[in-house]
Predict the structure.
Amino acid sequence: MVVAEPRAYVCATCGVQFTPSIDPPASCPVCEDERQYVGWGGQRWTTLEELRSQHHNHVRDDAGLLGIGTEPSFAIGQRALLVRSPGGNLLWDCVTVVDDAAVRAVRDAGGLRAIAISHPHYYSSMVEWSRAFNAPVLLHAADRQWVMRTDPCIELWDGDTKPLWDGMTLIRAGGHFEGGTVLHWPFGAEGRGALLAGDILQVAQDRRWVSFMYSFPNYVPLSAAEVDHVVAAVEPFAFERIYGAWWDRNVTSGARGAVRRSAERYKRHLAGW
């Protein structure tokens, strides 16, 4: 008799990997939350093995950082970013597919000291990335309920900021998620500072601007008070550039001013001018 082995199923809509099980999970809580959605064809599951047969990772420069994105695009379609630093490299956000080419590229760049993720939509296969490099995954404790695959590699942090090494800081900005996090990289933008923001600060198609949403796919805005909280969280930090969640979605200069004026524009529209 063939005994079925547990599989770490992946939600095909959000790309988040679940704790191994014999049968697929009954549902995906990440997608059933009003900030996301269940795919139009209903809940579908896949695995990393299946994904690797149809997708591969592309590694290239993105405004001075090493970006890792999946082709053809899968799930939400974000790309990860590797921050190279003297005290150790940090992987910012994750993609679901973990393949040999991407692992080799990160190892060639010096490996990883840690992984940090902006919010639950990008948790993807974070445990697999951690195991490939024996690196901890840093998540804000306010979002612990959205961890679909628990593992000792996950380190939850509390509070408004978490200092890392070489002057880098994780900042709890909130907004999109209660534990929504951005990374301040003081040596980014040729020493003028950069924020790696996922879509906590969403870089707009007009890359002179950012936006703020509770739900991007369902077009649910944040309140003026929540927008003010996000802006206040990053205000103490110097940054010239913002790295968004997708290829080339970056505010390459004047980013601090872009956040301020974007917040004011957003609040004007909330108030009906």
User: Anything to note?
Assistant: The mean pLDDT is 97. The first strand starts at residue 10 and ends at 11.
